[in-house]
Specification:
- The protein is α+β, with helices and mostly antiparallel strands.
- The chain has a single domain (11-306), classed as Alpha-Beta Complex (Sulfite Oxidase, Chain A, domain 2), CATH 3.90.420.10.
- The protein has helices at 17-30, 32-40, 65-70, 83-87, 112-117, 145-152, 192-196, 248-252, 299-302, and strands at residues 51-52, 97-102, 108-111, 122-129, 134-144, 160-165, 187-191, 201-206, 209-210, 220-222, 235-241, 276-279, 290-291.
- α1 packs across α2 (32-40).
- Bound molecules: ligand MTE.
């Protein structure tokens, strides 16, 4: 994000989901070895059954699974878009626990499999908009963050929710660098009412299967009206706090990335405009960019969270 202005690289070949899954199954059938090897690396996908959510943006064409899983930002595995798909298999995602602590009546430590088992999983098709000027439409599988928040019973003094990614340098090459791009671990935060909003989910899968490592396995945040960097990956800790928590990109470049990070075409990034976006998979360099919508098109549902706030100041 910080490294350079976004480049319009040609979108990779589109593989429809059925084709991709068939190919996977064929490989599994022909040689159990393929899946066994994947499993050894901790990257075997498992199917997830999920109800279709009425909150889905079903009028949009899905971005191909190939693009969703091979055009990523996950700086713990490198700064190139292709680096997470190439390197994220080194992260061991099982066993995995998420600690929930801070200003709550019932602090807890959850095994991710229990969270998956005990949650009503939904498929949420969301438009996603990156601060770099590109967008995707992704069929996430997850559950409302509000469900988890209600279980731990936040105290009245809890005003914000802070999130933390795992810190494991041996498994995450970007965390070993002598000149790190970001301070580790990656951290993010939401105001409590943003965290409780029904559109905010903890995703555990996409395209009907558990999350690939490069997309934030085993559990990550998805907030569709904010720039993608709010969607912290591979979460190990969720803390309820009184004061606005630090966020990774704001720590790194406070003039460029604010705490709120609501998609706002009227507030330019200091180094480029946010007025338009390029939908990944819609052809090459010369395809017309789309106008970016306020709150990424979710304004009707979320604008009231910010009534009375100057969103140029609180960018
Ligand atoms: N979470 C962690 N831990 N590390 C990261 O580098 N990158 C963010 C966000 N979450 C990031 C992260 C950014 S900049 C974006 S755009 C989204 O993840 C990308 O999510 P995706 O690769 O699943 O599309």
């Amino acid at each position: 994000m910080l490294i350079r202005r976004p480049t319009d690289i040609p979108a990779s070949e589109i593989t429809p989901r059925e084709l991709y899954l068939n190919r996977r199954q064929m490989m599994a059938g022909a040689a159990g070895l393929v899946l066994a090897a994947g499993s050894a690396k901790g990257i075997m996908a498992a199917p997830l059954s999920a109800a279709k959510s009425p909150l889905s943006a079903t009028d949009e064409k899905l971005t191909s699974l190939e693009d969703v899983t091979h055009y990523n930002n996950y700086y713990e595995f490198g700064v190139d878009k292709t680096a997470p798909a190439a390197h994220a298999h080194t992260l061991k995602t099982s066993p995995w626990t998420v600690k929930v602590d801070g200003l709550v009546a019932k602090p807890a430590e959850y095994a991710v499999e229990d969270l998956i088992k005990n949650s009503a999983l939904e498929e949420r098709i969301y438009r996603m908009r990156c601060v770099e000027g590109w967008s995707m439409v992704i069929p996430w599988v997850g559950f409302p963050l509000a469900d988890l928040i209600k279980r731990v019973e936040p105290q009245g003094s809890a005003k914000y929710v802070a999130f933390e990614t795992v810190y494991r340098p041996p498994e995450m090459p970007g965390q070993q660098s002598a000149f790190p791009v970001l301070e580790w671990p990656y951290v993010e935060g939401l105001r409590l009412d943003e965290a409780m909003h029904p559109l905010t989910i903890l995703a555990v899968g996409l395209y009907g299967e558990t999350l690939p490592n490069q997309n934030g396995a085993p559990i990550r945040l998805v907030v569709p009206w904010k720039y993608g960097f709010k969607g912290i990956k591979s979460i190990t800790r969720i803390s309820f706090v009184e004061k606005q928590p630090a966020t990774s990109w704001n720590l790194q470049a406070p003039d460029e990335y604010g705490f709120y990070a609501n998609v706002n075409p009227d507030v330019d990034h200091p180094r480029w405009s946010q007025k338009t976006e390029r939908r990944i998979g819609e052809g090459g360099l010369f395809v017309k960019r789309r106008p970016t919508l306020p709150f990424n098109g979710y304004g009707e549902q979320v604008a009231q969270l910010y009534s009375g706030m100057d969103l140029r100041k609180f960018y």
